[in-house]
Design brief:
The chain is an alpha/beta fold. It is built from 14 helices and 21 strands. It binds calcium ion (CA).
Length: about 525
């Protein structure tokens, strides 16, 4: 366990006038740091201590950026809590730097490979899964029943297939399918069915009377195999007499696909075939100094190896958008990013809210004062490479390099949309802790703090808190994450979430109306 260490704080940038307390459980008044700073009052772990005297209205600086303004005068060595910091306005979208600081390409990183399942469309799976897609919630329980029977009675005969899953959701019935925004949930469901880990063998269960018809969700023109053999099982079709025949029909269609999936074997693939989705959830003030920068270092390694790296969560990049438009590969990419930010500003405004609705009670307890501070820590995940592309929610990503795949920050909605974007590996950083996992792809969880990694020893895969205590560098943990990604992608190491079968539900993003 962590021994009691001498008082320690982390100042990210030399311009910062606040730092965060590293010690587990916080520090009492009178604690003296190596720098000579002495605490005038107790400061909780991860919360901010002032490094200079501040007058009311003075900027509060962390990550070298203004995260807000002091609402009262405080002496050096004080606890600056969230209620003492007033948030600034979000950066305006009409006067942003466009590709003004595009980073030069990073040196290529060759020779890294993993063992994956290559698909006909060129994508690569890190698992070999049969999925039954659904057009409507009405069929979810029936499909769930069939999946249980398939797993118990058929799957043991097909040992090369890892799992059988149902892609269920609450869309399809009573939705305004002609609404402009319906395109988002519809394409999300289509692209989920095409995720590289599902082997190009879609099977769709439909009720029959629903608004979202199978031909709209997954047209037969999507894949050659869909034109060649039936892929839709409709419960209301007159050929099915009773529940037993519906289940039997699903099992028969499933078995044909299991036979083909079972013939697949892992082959050596370059690291460039990885599509790694990055996300954070339950963030704290350590996220931006330990787990996220380490993941950002790993993201740079992946980009250097030619892979695709997805980062997302619009409200968590909104306040750092000026840094990202400057980093865009060209002006069009910057414009695409601004388009996604503006769409989300409008979406939030319709609900009479803005991006400041984001930080959660747990984020604040973890020392994050506001969305500006959270965003500056969040974008550290994106590393230092040029932003190569931007996609809308639920769109499939085919481009290499660092891609902003626009999604809400909600863990399950973001994860679902990254799966639709064709993610085949997921890395998730957390400070407060979450047992989050997905059935479709492995989820590597990285803790921002060592006490969390120790307390949740059988849920957290990587401890990035060692960066805060000085026991590891950002580069050390970044390489550790990179190597772990290759091992997990090869099926040589099982994440804790997969070990326990902790798989959250798919959550669609439906900004459109329901009738
Ligand atoms: Ca999230």
């Amino acid at each position: 366990m962590t021994e009691q260490r001498e008082p320690r704080y982390i100042q990210v940038d030399e311009r910062d006038n606040v730092a965060i307390i590293v010690n587990e459980g916080g520090l009492p008044a009178g604690s003296a740091f190596a720098s000579g700073l002495v605490l005038l009052e107790a400061v909780p772990e991860a919360h901010k201590v002032t490094l200079t005297d501040l007058a009311a209205g003075d900027p509060v600086i962390r990550y070298g950026s203004v995260i807000g303004y002091a609402t009262r005068s405080v002496k050096r060595g004080s606890w600056l809590a969230e209620d003492s910091i007033e948030s600034p306005a979000a950066p305006a979208l009409d006067n942003l730097p466009m590709a003004t600081a595009t980073p030069a390409p990073l040196p290529s990183l060759d020779g890294y490979t993993f063992q994956g399942y290559r698909n006909d469309d060129g994508t690569v799976g890190t698992k070999n899964i049969l999925a039954i897609s659904t057009t409507v919630q009405c069929v979810a329980a029936t499909v769930g029943y069939a999946v249980q029977r398939i797993k118990a009675e058929l799957l043991p005969r097909y040992p090369n297939v890892d799992d059988v899953i149902a892609i269920t959701h609450n869309y399809g019935c009573g939705v305004a399918i002609q609404a402009k925004e319906a395109a988002i949930p519809v394409r999300t469901l289509r692209n989920l069915s095409l995720n590289p880990n599902l082997g190009g063998e879609p099977l769709v269960a439909s009720l029959g009377c629903e608004k979202m018809q199978p031909a709209q969700m997954l047209p037969s023109s999507t894949l050659p195999i869909l034109a060649a053999e039936p892929y839709v099982m409709r419960l209301q079709d007159e050929e099915h007499h009773g529940f037993g025949e519906m289940v039997a029909a699903l099992m028969e269609m499933a078995e044909r696909r299991l036979e083909r999936l079972n013939r697949r074997v892992r082959v050596t693939c370059p690291a460039s075939d990885l599509v790694v989705g990055l996300q954070c959830g339950g963030s704290d003030a350590f996220s931006g100094v330990t787990a996220n920068p380490a993941l950002g270092f790993a993201a740079d390694l992946l980009v250097r190896a030619g892979a695709t790296v997805l980062f997302s969560e619009v409200t968590e990049v909104r306040d750092a958008v000026h840094l990202l438009t400057a980093r865009a590969a060209n002006e069009q990419v910057a414009r695409d990013l601004i388009r996604e930010m503006a769409w989300y500003d409008d979406y939030l405004a319709k609900g009479d809210i803005d991006r400041s609705a984001n930080p959660s009670p747990g984020n604040k307890k973890g020392g994050l004062a506001n969305i500006v501070e959270k965003a500056l820590g969040s974008v550290a995940k994106a590393g230092t490479s040029a932003l190569s592309g931007v996609t809308g929610p639920g769109e499939r990503v085919t481009q290499k390099g660092l891609i902003f795949a626009a999604t809400p920050a909600s863990d399950f909605i973001c994860g679902t949309l990254q799966l639709a974007a064709s993610m085949n590996m997921h890395v998730f950083t957390t400070g407060r802790g979450t047992p989050y996992g997905l059935a479709m792809v492995p989820v590597i969880k990285v803790a921002t703090r060592t006490p969390l990694a120790q307390r949740w020893h059988d849920l957290i895969d990587v401890d990035a808190g060692r960066i805060a205590t000085g026991d590891a560098t950002i580069e050390d943990v970044g390489w550790e994450i990179f190597h772990l990604i290759l091992k997990v992608a090869s099926g040589e190491h099982t994440t804790w979430a997969d070990r326990w079968g902790l798989h959250n539900e798919y959550a669609l993003f439906n900004p459109g109306p329901v009738t």
